[in-house]
Amino acid sequence: MSNVLLQQFLQSTGAISAAQAAEIATCFQPRKIARHQLLLEAGQVSDTYFFLTQGLLRAFALDPDGTEVTTGLAGPGQVVFEVASFFNRTPSLEYIQALTDCEGWCLSYRQLNELFHARPEFREFGRGILVRGFAALKARMLATITESASARYDKLLRAHPELLLHVPLKYIASYLGITDSSLSRIRKADGKK
Amino acid sequence: MSNVLLQQFLQSTGAISAAQAAEIATCFQPRKIARHQLLLEAGQVSDTYFFLTQGLLRAFALDPDGTEVTTGLAGPGQVVFEVASFFNRTPSLEYIQALTDCEGWCLSYRQLNELFHARPEFREFGRGILVRGFAALKARMLATITESASARYDKLLRAHPELLLHVPLKYIASYLGITDSSLSRIRKADGKK
DNA sequence: GCCATTTCTTGCCAAATGGCAAGCGGCGCA
DNA sequence: TGCGCCGCTTGCCATTTGGCAAGAAATGGC
Predict the structure, then answer these.
(1) Under a CB-based contact definition with an 8 Å cutoff, are residues B23 and B92 in contact?
(2) ipTM, 2 dp
(3) Which of A38, A56, A192, B128 could form a disulfide with B13 if both were Cys (CB 3.0 to 4.6 A apart)?
(4) Distance between CA atoms of A174 and A143, rounded to whole angstroms?
(5) How many Å apart are A66 CA and D9 C1'?
(6) pLDDT (tens digit, 9 = 90+) per residue, A22-60?
(7) CB of A63 within 8 A of CB of B146?
(8) CATH class (in words) of the domain with range A29-106
(9) What are the extents of the domains in chain A?
Protein backbone atom coordinates (compact mmCIF):
# COMPACT_ATOMS: atom_id res chain seq x y z
CA MET A 1 0.00 0.00 0.00
CA SER A 2 1.44 3.36 -1.03
CA ASN A 3 2.01 6.06 1.53
CA VAL A 4 2.53 8.87 -0.99
CA LEU A 5 -0.41 10.88 0.40
CA LEU A 6 1.03 10.58 3.89
CA GLN A 7 4.43 11.80 2.72
CA GLN A 8 2.85 14.78 1.00
CA PHE A 9 0.93 15.58 4.13
CA LEU A 10 4.07 15.41 6.28
CA GLN A 11 5.66 18.01 4.01
CA SER A 12 2.62 20.27 4.00
CA THR A 13 3.63 22.47 6.94
CA GLY A 14 7.10 23.11 5.56
CA ALA A 15 8.80 21.71 8.66
CA ILE A 16 9.72 18.38 7.07
CA SER A 17 11.77 17.76 3.91
CA ALA A 18 10.90 15.15 1.27
CA ALA A 19 13.66 12.81 2.43
CA GLN A 20 12.64 13.12 6.07
CA ALA A 21 8.99 12.59 5.16
CA ALA A 22 9.80 9.31 3.43
CA GLU A 23 11.50 8.00 6.57
CA ILE A 24 8.96 9.28 9.03
CA ALA A 25 6.10 7.85 7.00
CA THR A 26 7.44 4.34 7.56
CA CYS A 27 6.69 4.70 11.27
CA PHE A 28 2.95 4.94 10.66
CA GLN A 29 0.80 1.81 10.58
CA PRO A 30 -1.89 1.24 7.99
CA ARG A 31 -5.41 1.07 9.32
CA LYS A 32 -8.84 0.42 7.88
CA ILE A 33 -12.15 1.26 9.48
CA ALA A 34 -15.37 -0.26 8.24
CA ARG A 35 -18.44 1.87 7.65
CA HIS A 36 -20.37 2.63 10.85
CA GLN A 37 -17.48 1.55 13.06
CA LEU A 38 -16.16 3.83 15.78
CA LEU A 39 -12.58 5.11 15.77
CA LEU A 40 -13.20 6.59 19.21
CA GLU A 41 -15.92 6.26 21.82
CA ALA A 42 -16.81 8.81 24.50
CA GLY A 43 -15.23 7.81 27.79
CA GLN A 44 -12.18 6.28 26.10
CA VAL A 45 -8.82 8.00 25.90
CA SER A 46 -8.08 8.89 22.28
CA ASP A 47 -4.95 6.91 21.43
CA THR A 48 -4.91 7.06 17.64
CA TYR A 49 -3.36 9.91 15.71
CA PHE A 50 -5.06 9.04 12.45
CA PHE A 51 -4.23 10.37 8.98
CA LEU A 52 -7.17 9.65 6.68
CA THR A 53 -6.42 8.75 3.06
CA GLN A 54 -9.81 7.44 1.99
CA GLY A 55 -13.37 7.77 3.22
CA LEU A 56 -15.29 10.11 5.50
CA LEU A 57 -15.30 10.45 9.27
CA ARG A 58 -17.71 12.21 11.57
CA ALA A 59 -17.16 13.41 15.14
CA PHE A 60 -20.14 13.88 17.40
CA ALA A 61 -21.05 14.55 21.00
CA LEU A 62 -24.20 13.79 22.97
CA ASP A 63 -26.34 16.63 24.24
CA PRO A 64 -27.49 16.57 27.88
CA ASP A 65 -30.79 15.24 26.51
CA GLY A 66 -29.08 12.51 24.50
CA THR A 67 -29.24 14.09 21.06
CA GLU A 68 -26.26 13.58 18.77
CA VAL A 69 -24.51 16.79 17.74
CA THR A 70 -22.09 16.55 14.83
CA THR A 71 -18.99 18.50 15.82
CA GLY A 72 -16.71 17.64 12.92
CA LEU A 73 -16.55 16.14 9.45
CA ALA A 74 -13.33 14.99 7.81
CA GLY A 75 -12.27 13.66 4.43
CA PRO A 76 -8.99 12.41 2.92
CA GLY A 77 -5.93 14.51 3.70
CA GLN A 78 -6.88 15.35 7.25
CA VAL A 79 -5.60 14.18 10.60
CA VAL A 80 -8.36 13.02 12.90
CA PHE A 81 -8.07 12.62 16.66
CA GLU A 82 -9.56 14.17 19.77
CA VAL A 83 -6.94 16.76 20.66
CA ALA A 84 -7.66 17.25 24.36
CA SER A 85 -8.21 13.56 25.10
CA PHE A 86 -5.14 12.49 23.13
CA PHE A 87 -2.63 14.93 24.62
CA ASN A 88 -4.01 15.11 28.13
CA ARG A 89 -4.76 11.39 28.36
CA THR A 90 -8.26 12.14 29.58
CA PRO A 91 -11.56 10.47 28.61
CA SER A 92 -12.99 11.81 25.37
CA LEU A 93 -16.31 13.64 25.33
CA GLU A 94 -16.78 12.76 21.67
CA TYR A 95 -17.31 9.85 19.37
CA ILE A 96 -15.59 9.47 16.01
CA GLN A 97 -17.40 7.33 13.49
CA ALA A 98 -16.73 6.13 9.95
CA LEU A 99 -19.45 7.28 7.54
CA THR A 100 -17.95 5.16 4.76
CA ASP A 101 -15.25 2.51 4.66
CA CYS A 102 -12.05 4.34 5.55
CA GLU A 103 -8.31 3.87 5.11
CA GLY A 104 -5.38 5.72 6.57
CA TRP A 105 -2.23 5.70 8.65
CA CYS A 106 -1.92 5.96 12.37
CA LEU A 107 0.35 6.37 15.38
CA SER A 108 -0.37 5.66 19.03
CA TYR A 109 0.31 8.29 21.69
CA ARG A 110 3.47 6.46 22.68
CA GLN A 111 4.70 6.14 19.12
CA LEU A 112 3.96 9.78 18.43
CA ASN A 113 5.99 10.87 21.45
CA GLU A 114 8.88 8.63 20.57
CA LEU A 115 8.88 10.11 17.09
CA PHE A 116 8.68 13.63 18.52
CA HIS A 117 11.78 12.79 20.54
CA ALA A 118 13.71 11.13 17.73
CA ARG A 119 12.74 13.68 15.09
CA PRO A 120 12.61 17.33 16.16
CA GLU A 121 11.27 18.29 12.73
CA PHE A 122 8.31 15.98 13.31
CA ARG A 123 7.61 17.75 16.57
CA GLU A 124 7.59 21.00 14.66
CA PHE A 125 5.18 19.45 12.17
CA GLY A 126 2.94 18.35 15.02
CA ARG A 127 2.66 21.90 16.25
CA GLY A 128 1.93 23.07 12.73
CA ILE A 129 -1.02 20.68 12.51
CA LEU A 130 -2.33 21.85 15.85
CA VAL A 131 -2.05 25.49 14.79
CA ARG A 132 -3.77 24.73 11.50
CA GLY A 133 -6.65 23.04 13.29
CA PHE A 134 -6.90 25.93 15.70
CA ALA A 135 -7.13 28.45 12.87
CA ALA A 136 -9.74 26.38 11.06
CA LEU A 137 -11.88 26.15 14.18
CA LYS A 138 -11.61 29.89 14.73
CA ALA A 139 -12.72 30.52 11.17
CA ARG A 140 -15.68 28.20 11.66
CA MET A 141 -16.58 29.95 14.90
CA LEU A 142 -16.45 33.34 13.21
CA ALA A 143 -18.63 32.13 10.34
CA THR A 144 -21.14 30.64 12.77
CA ILE A 145 -21.41 33.96 14.56
CA THR A 146 -21.50 36.26 11.55
CA GLU A 147 -23.10 34.35 8.69
CA SER A 148 -26.58 32.98 8.08
CA ALA A 149 -27.20 29.25 8.11
CA SER A 150 -27.80 29.39 4.37
CA ALA A 151 -24.46 31.10 3.72
CA ARG A 152 -22.66 28.56 5.89
CA TYR A 153 -24.31 25.72 4.01
CA ASP A 154 -23.32 27.20 0.64
CA LYS A 155 -19.76 27.67 1.81
CA LEU A 156 -19.54 24.11 3.14
CA LEU A 157 -20.84 22.68 -0.09
CA ARG A 158 -18.48 24.73 -2.22
CA ALA A 159 -15.53 23.65 -0.07
CA HIS A 160 -16.56 19.99 0.21
CA PRO A 161 -19.12 18.97 -2.42
CA GLU A 162 -18.25 15.33 -1.82
CA LEU A 163 -19.98 15.46 1.56
CA LEU A 164 -23.37 15.53 -0.11
CA LEU A 165 -22.71 12.11 -1.59
CA HIS A 166 -22.22 10.20 1.62
CA VAL A 167 -23.26 12.33 4.59
CA PRO A 168 -26.93 12.25 5.62
CA LEU A 169 -28.34 15.77 5.65
CA LYS A 170 -29.25 15.56 9.30
CA TYR A 171 -25.55 15.32 10.17
CA ILE A 172 -24.74 18.31 7.99
CA ALA A 173 -27.59 20.22 9.61
CA SER A 174 -26.36 19.59 13.12
CA TYR A 175 -22.79 20.43 12.05
CA LEU A 176 -24.14 23.78 10.85
CA GLY A 177 -26.08 24.24 14.05
CA ILE A 178 -29.59 24.02 12.60
CA THR A 179 -32.33 21.38 12.46
CA ASP A 180 -32.77 19.08 9.52
CA SER A 181 -36.12 20.73 8.74
CA SER A 182 -34.44 24.12 8.44
CA LEU A 183 -31.73 22.71 6.21
CA SER A 184 -34.36 21.16 4.01
CA ARG A 185 -36.06 24.55 3.61
CA ILE A 186 -32.73 26.27 2.91
CA ARG A 187 -32.00 23.72 0.20
CA LYS A 188 -35.38 24.30 -1.36
CA ALA A 189 -34.86 28.07 -1.39
CA ASP A 190 -31.40 27.59 -2.92
CA GLY A 191 -32.92 25.61 -5.76
CA LYS A 192 -31.45 22.29 -4.60
CA LYS A 193 -27.84 23.46 -5.05
CA MET B 1 7.10 43.63 40.47
CA SER B 2 6.14 40.14 41.58
CA ASN B 3 5.83 37.35 39.06
CA VAL B 4 4.04 34.92 41.37
CA LEU B 5 1.00 34.70 39.11
CA LEU B 6 3.24 33.92 36.16
CA GLN B 7 4.99 31.16 38.09
CA GLN B 8 1.67 29.63 39.10
CA PHE B 9 0.55 29.74 35.51
CA LEU B 10 3.71 28.03 34.31
CA GLN B 11 2.98 25.17 36.69
CA SER B 12 -0.66 24.89 35.70
CA THR B 13 -0.24 22.28 32.97
CA GLY B 14 1.83 19.99 35.17
CA ALA B 15 4.77 20.02 32.77
CA ILE B 16 6.87 22.45 34.79
CA SER B 17 8.00 22.14 38.41
CA ALA B 18 8.00 24.98 40.92
CA ALA B 19 11.77 25.38 40.74
CA GLN B 20 11.75 25.36 36.94
CA ALA B 21 8.88 27.86 36.89
CA ALA B 22 10.83 30.30 39.03
CA GLU B 23 13.73 30.24 36.58
CA ILE B 24 11.67 30.35 33.43
CA ALA B 25 9.60 33.23 34.73
CA THR B 26 12.70 35.41 34.82
CA CYS B 27 12.90 35.24 31.03
CA PHE B 28 9.60 37.09 30.62
CA GLN B 29 9.56 40.87 30.39
CA PRO B 30 7.00 42.99 32.20
CA ARG B 31 4.63 44.91 30.01
CA LYS B 32 1.85 47.42 30.54
CA ILE B 33 -0.83 48.36 28.05
CA ALA B 34 -2.90 51.46 28.52
CA ARG B 35 -6.67 51.32 28.08
CA HIS B 36 -7.77 51.50 24.44
CA GLN B 37 -4.28 50.70 23.16
CA LEU B 38 -3.73 47.85 20.74
CA LEU B 39 -1.57 44.86 21.58
CA LEU B 40 -1.94 43.69 18.00
CA GLU B 41 -3.23 45.23 14.80
CA ALA B 42 -4.62 43.35 11.79
CA GLY B 43 -1.94 43.07 9.12
CA GLN B 44 0.88 42.88 11.66
CA VAL B 45 2.59 39.65 12.62
CA SER B 46 1.73 38.78 16.22
CA ASP B 47 5.08 38.82 18.03
CA THR B 48 4.04 38.99 21.67
CA TYR B 49 3.24 35.89 23.71
CA PHE B 50 1.47 37.80 26.46
CA PHE B 51 0.49 36.50 29.89
CA LEU B 52 -2.09 38.85 31.39
CA THR B 53 -1.96 39.50 35.15
CA GLN B 54 -4.25 42.49 35.38
CA GLY B 55 -6.96 44.04 33.22
CA LEU B 56 -9.15 42.92 30.33
CA LEU B 57 -8.32 42.35 26.67
CA ARG B 58 -10.60 41.98 23.68
CA ALA B 59 -9.84 40.39 20.31
CA PHE B 60 -11.88 41.42 17.32
CA ALA B 61 -12.01 41.07 13.56
CA LEU B 62 -13.60 43.23 10.89
CA ASP B 63 -16.51 41.90 8.86
CA PRO B 64 -16.42 42.31 5.07
CA ASP B 65 -18.72 45.29 5.63
CA GLY B 66 -16.42 46.83 8.22
CA THR B 67 -18.31 45.85 11.37
CA GLU B 68 -16.27 44.84 14.39
CA VAL B 69 -16.85 41.28 15.60
CA THR B 70 -15.57 40.41 19.04
CA THR B 71 -13.86 37.04 18.76
CA GLY B 72 -12.35 36.77 22.22
CA LEU B 73 -12.33 38.21 25.71
CA ALA B 74 -9.57 37.59 28.23
CA GLY B 75 -8.92 38.41 31.86
CA PRO B 76 -6.03 37.81 34.29
CA GLY B 77 -4.48 34.35 34.20
CA GLN B 78 -4.76 33.87 30.45
CA VAL B 79 -2.21 33.92 27.67
CA VAL B 80 -3.19 36.19 24.82
CA PHE B 81 -1.73 36.07 21.33
CA GLU B 82 -2.94 35.33 17.82
CA VAL B 83 -2.00 31.68 17.45
CA ALA B 84 -1.86 31.37 13.67
CA SER B 85 -0.11 34.68 13.10
CA PHE B 86 2.38 34.10 15.90
CA PHE B 87 3.48 30.60 14.93
CA ASN B 88 3.20 30.89 11.16
CA ARG B 89 4.68 34.41 11.06
CA THR B 90 1.80 35.58 8.91
CA PRO B 91 -0.21 38.82 9.10
CA SER B 92 -2.94 38.72 11.71
CA LEU B 93 -6.58 38.97 10.73
CA GLU B 94 -7.47 40.23 14.17
CA TYR B 95 -6.93 43.14 16.49
CA ILE B 96 -6.25 42.79 20.20
CA GLN B 97 -7.22 45.75 22.31
CA ALA B 98 -6.99 46.69 25.99
CA LEU B 99 -10.42 47.35 27.49
CA THR B 100 -8.82 48.56 30.73
CA ASP B 101 -5.26 49.35 31.75
CA CYS B 102 -3.43 46.03 31.60
CA GLU B 103 -0.32 44.45 33.04
CA GLY B 104 1.42 41.22 32.29
CA TRP B 105 4.53 39.39 31.13
CA CYS B 106 5.62 38.72 27.59
CA LEU B 107 8.03 36.91 25.29
CA SER B 108 8.80 37.62 21.65
CA TYR B 109 8.64 34.83 19.06
CA ARG B 110 12.42 34.61 19.09
CA GLN B 111 12.62 34.49 22.87
CA LEU B 112 9.89 31.87 23.04
CA ASN B 113 11.74 29.63 20.60
CA GLU B 114 15.03 30.04 22.42
CA LEU B 115 13.30 29.06 25.62
CA PHE B 116 11.65 26.09 23.90
CA HIS B 117 15.10 24.98 22.85
CA ALA B 118 16.79 25.57 26.19
CA ARG B 119 13.94 24.14 28.25
CA PRO B 120 12.16 21.05 26.91
CA GLU B 121 9.66 21.24 29.76
CA PHE B 122 8.68 24.72 28.62
CA ARG B 123 8.02 23.36 25.15
CA GLU B 124 5.76 20.79 26.73
CA PHE B 125 4.02 23.57 28.60
CA GLY B 126 3.57 25.48 25.36
CA ARG B 127 1.76 22.55 23.82
CA GLY B 128 -0.40 22.25 26.91
CA ILE B 129 -1.52 25.84 26.54
CA LEU B 130 -2.33 25.31 22.88
CA VAL B 131 -4.35 22.19 23.70
CA ARG B 132 -6.18 24.01 26.46
CA GLY B 133 -7.10 26.83 24.10
CA PHE B 134 -8.23 24.35 21.48
CA ALA B 135 -10.52 22.58 23.93
CA ALA B 136 -11.99 25.86 25.16
CA LEU B 137 -12.73 26.94 21.60
CA LYS B 138 -14.40 23.61 20.85
CA ALA B 139 -16.57 23.96 23.93
CA ARG B 140 -17.56 27.45 22.86
CA MET B 141 -18.35 26.21 19.36
CA LEU B 142 -20.54 23.44 20.76
CA ALA B 143 -22.38 25.85 23.02
CA THR B 144 -22.95 28.25 20.14
CA ILE B 145 -24.48 25.47 18.08
CA THR B 146 -26.59 23.84 20.74
CA GLU B 147 -27.60 26.53 23.23
CA SER B 148 -29.81 29.59 22.98
CA ALA B 149 -28.29 33.06 23.11
CA SER B 150 -29.86 33.55 26.50
CA ALA B 151 -28.28 30.37 27.89
CA ARG B 152 -24.89 31.36 26.49
CA TYR B 153 -25.18 34.77 28.10
CA ASP B 154 -26.08 33.26 31.48
CA LYS B 155 -23.17 30.86 31.27
CA LEU B 156 -20.73 33.61 30.32
CA LEU B 157 -21.84 35.78 33.21
CA ARG B 158 -21.64 32.97 35.69
CA ALA B 159 -18.12 32.10 34.52
CA HIS B 160 -16.89 35.70 34.26
CA PRO B 161 -19.09 38.11 36.18
CA GLU B 162 -16.28 40.66 36.16
CA LEU B 163 -16.82 41.22 32.44
CA LEU B 164 -20.02 43.11 33.12
CA LEU B 165 -18.07 45.75 35.00
CA HIS B 166 -15.78 46.82 32.19
CA VAL B 167 -16.97 45.35 28.90
CA PRO B 168 -19.60 47.30 26.94
CA LEU B 169 -22.61 45.09 26.25
CA LYS B 170 -22.24 45.48 22.51
CA TYR B 171 -18.92 43.65 22.70
CA ILE B 172 -20.46 40.87 24.77
CA ALA B 173 -23.34 40.68 22.29
CA SER B 174 -21.06 40.28 19.29
CA TYR B 175 -18.96 37.74 21.21
CA LEU B 176 -22.16 35.76 21.74
CA GLY B 177 -23.11 36.16 18.09
CA ILE B 178 -26.16 38.36 18.58
CA THR B 179 -26.97 42.05 18.21
CA ASP B 180 -26.89 44.46 21.11
CA SER B 181 -30.67 44.92 20.82
CA SER B 182 -31.23 41.22 21.29
CA LEU B 183 -28.90 41.09 24.26
CA SER B 184 -30.77 43.98 25.80
CA ARG B 185 -34.05 42.09 25.44
CA ILE B 186 -32.49 38.93 26.89
CA ARG B 187 -31.27 40.88 29.89
CA LYS B 188 -34.70 42.32 30.41
CA ALA B 189 -36.32 38.88 30.29
CA ASP B 190 -33.69 37.55 32.71
CA GLY B 191 -34.62 40.23 35.19
CA LYS B 192 -31.34 42.16 34.79
CA LYS B 193 -29.22 39.31 36.10
C1' DG C 1 -20.34 72.22 34.85
C1' DC C 2 -21.59 71.57 29.98
C1' DC C 3 -21.74 69.53 25.60
C1' DA C 4 -20.82 65.70 22.51
C1' DT C 5 -20.45 61.08 22.12
C1' DT C 6 -21.21 56.55 23.34
C1' DT C 7 -23.95 53.07 25.46
C1' DC C 8 -28.12 50.96 26.35
C1' DT C 9 -33.02 50.28 25.88
C1' DT C 10 -37.34 50.05 23.46
C1' DG C 11 -40.98 49.78 19.80
C1' DC C 12 -42.29 48.16 15.48
C1' DC C 13 -42.25 44.88 12.04
C1' DA C 14 -39.90 41.34 9.03
C1' DA C 15 -37.10 37.30 8.54
C1' DA C 16 -35.05 33.13 10.24
C1' DT C 17 -35.44 29.11 12.75
C1' DG C 18 -37.56 25.60 15.77
C1' DG C 19 -41.03 22.04 17.26
C1' DC C 20 -44.07 18.82 15.94
C1' DA C 21 -46.40 15.75 13.11
C1' DA C 22 -47.57 13.81 8.76
C1' DG C 23 -46.30 11.89 4.51
C1' DC C 24 -43.40 10.09 0.89
C1' DG C 25 -39.88 7.19 -0.99
C1' DG C 26 -35.96 4.17 -0.95
C1' DC C 27 -33.40 0.46 0.94
C1' DG C 28 -32.33 -3.53 3.51
C1' DC C 29 -33.77 -7.70 5.41
C1' DA C 30 -36.68 -11.61 6.44
C1' DT D 1 -42.26 -9.96 -2.19
C1' DG D 2 -43.55 -7.36 1.53
C1' DC D 3 -42.60 -4.98 5.82
C1' DG D 4 -40.36 -1.66 8.52
C1' DC D 5 -36.95 1.64 9.26
C1' DC D 6 -34.47 5.65 7.86
C1' DG D 7 -33.85 9.85 5.42
C1' DC D 8 -35.91 13.77 3.66
C1' DT D 9 -39.56 17.05 2.88
C1' DT D 10 -43.51 19.87 4.02
C1' DG D 11 -47.23 22.37 6.55
C1' DC D 12 -48.59 24.90 10.49
C1' DC D 13 -47.65 27.91 13.99
C1' DA D 14 -44.70 29.71 17.93
C1' DT D 15 -40.41 31.69 19.25
C1' DT D 16 -36.17 33.89 18.51
C1' DT D 17 -33.57 37.16 16.39
C1' DG D 18 -32.56 41.01 13.25
C1' DG D 19 -33.01 45.77 11.21
C1' DC D 20 -33.99 50.23 11.93
C1' DA D 21 -34.90 54.29 14.35
C1' DA D 22 -35.84 57.00 18.36
C1' DG D 23 -34.90 58.23 22.80
C1' DA D 24 -32.99 57.80 27.55
C1' DA D 25 -28.97 57.26 30.29
C1' DA D 26 -24.18 57.25 31.11
C1' DT D 27 -19.58 58.72 30.01
C1' DG D 28 -15.76 61.48 28.73
C1' DG D 29 -13.37 65.70 27.33
C1' DC D 30 -12.76 70.39 27.93
Answers:
(1) no
(2) 0.92
(3) B128
(4) 15
(5) 24
(6) 999 999 999 999 999 999 999 999 999 999 999 999 999
(7) yes
(8) mainly beta
(9) 29-106
